Fold this protein.
Amino acid sequence: MATRAAAGARPGARFAQFKLVLLGESAVGKSSLVLRFVKDQFDDYRESTIGAAFLTQTISLDESTTVKFEIWDTAGQERYKSLAPMYYRNANCAVVVYDITQASSLDKAKSWVKELQRQANENIVIALAGNKLDLVTENPDKRAIPTADAEAYAREAGLLFFETSAKTSSNVRELFTAIAKKLPLDQAGPRNLRAAPRPGVDLRPEAPGTQGAGACNC
Amino acid sequence: MDEIAPEYDVVVLGTGLTECVLSGVLSVKGNKVLHIDRNDHYGGEAASVNIETLFKKYGNVRPGEEPWKKYGRANDWNIDLVPKLLMANGELTNILVSTDVTRYLEFKQIAGSYVQQGKGAKATVAKVPSDASEALRSSLMGMFEKRRAKKFLEWVGEFSESDPATHQGLNITQCTMKDVYDKFSLEDNTRDFIGHSMALYPSDEYFLKPGAAPETINRIRLYVNSMARYGKSPYIYPLYGLGELPQGFARLSAIYGGTYMLNTSVDEVLYDESGKVSGIKATMKDRDNEGDTMSFTTKTKKILADPSYFPGKVRVTGHLLKAICILNHPIDKTDGSDSLQLIIPQSQVGRKHDIYIAMVSSAHNVCPKGYYIAIVSTIAESDANHHIELEPGFERLGKIEETFFGAPIPLYEPIESGEKDNIFISKSYDATSHFETTTDDVRDIYRRATGEELVVEGLRDGQRLAEE
């Protein structure tokens, strides 16, 4: 799943695709973080998730290395603990989001990390993101979770850690770049890339026959 | 815990495939949907379960023993409870593509489609011919019969209901399939594999039914066109098991605003003075903390549900016999296929209903390497000794490591259309080997519940989808 060859890639170029899932309590800004990353947009009055369910974004790590994220939003199914196993399946990385102005949201984030460790791949890369940094910058009294507390937890649990603002875009790109750097790109070496066709069949009528290397569903 | 909205357009009960497809479609169409399941997992009767769950479900466990442990990690197993496959050119494939649910799933071919001729020690197993030219190479028929079968299949390709010139002089809307077979002078064995392994009729009821010819021809065409799509067999199958299908459609529904609550029991269905449904009372249990429950009441104008939610509003139409078998070898005489459909037509083994074998393996990420999961199924024809009814299927499997075989499974259908109370109930997953009757039920329920025909083509065009 992680490694798919890019059609017509330059020799020596590395291109790898990874599934990234978002987790965290409702209204901590999961979709907003992704929209900032993917579209560089922010909407103060966004309704709870509708539609932002399948997005992709590509990051160039260096001249020859490109990482593509296939980003899955919860589509609100986390609200009543009704996320399907399909959501975690083959996820390479996860961003677990909490709201630094809501004390309980870090506890919720911790339980999502546990759930990931139970349901997802063993070697999944997990990043903890304390969102809504802009609110604290404007008014330091609003902070409910000290940076040091979250950082200590992240270190202990082996997670990447950033405080972010989807609104100002602070640390958003840094968050996703850090994840990309921690992903096992070496497994996606040039040799593997060429020999990594998708195993399945493409159902779309315009593309009959088995799908070859380089095809992608985005 | 967030509050439940005071009113929904539709409440859906049960997360089987039928309910999830309908939930997805209704959400895309702009309905406010609340989707509930009493279980803590998706799929209902159409779920795929791990091997530990399967052992416990069938009671194949003695106290203190953990027999699943010798089969590796329990979670490497995704064992279907419903023995069905997707026709590559079938309606479920069409719905998956039209709704883009294909994004969340990956499909693989089923490696072969086989049919048995004869019984006991003399039984032979052969590939089902996929078209007229393959009929000429088939071991199922003698030399002259092959030519007749080729002629028949060519005619099936040319047939047009509106063009009498293609009707072979038959009164096609009135005649029986027997008349058609007679016209082509086909032998009994050929009629058998065409009707049962290509048209996929589970019994011979169709054979003498006046006017059944056009439908039979359409079914053969579906088989042939599905076969032509990817080559090895007319069937495809989702990696990680059929249980992925309801999950995919549930995700579609959620993306378009559907609210999901698992582990939630319906305490009461509320009706208004005219007898129509007006709401539900329900209780959600916390999965991690039994004592933590949330009870709520919400209004709704319509309920869609699987039969288990309304036992008083359904009747039994028959019983399905099903045995889930774990093998550590492919099935004999099937070219070592990693997956297959094998049909034993009823007449070959002196029955009224066909015996089906559907087998998948590690090639579809449903079990560890070296294992094969075969489900043998048929419609019950007796009140006892059900094991004997499935025996011809077990014979085909050879050595079986583990058999999971429960009581006959009742097949339900709703007694009423739902017009009176606005409660629209689905049918059980029937004995057919594919999902065509399931999608027929989806269309039928959609029509009853909305008064419109379901058109899935272009369904998502122009709908509100914030960003993609």
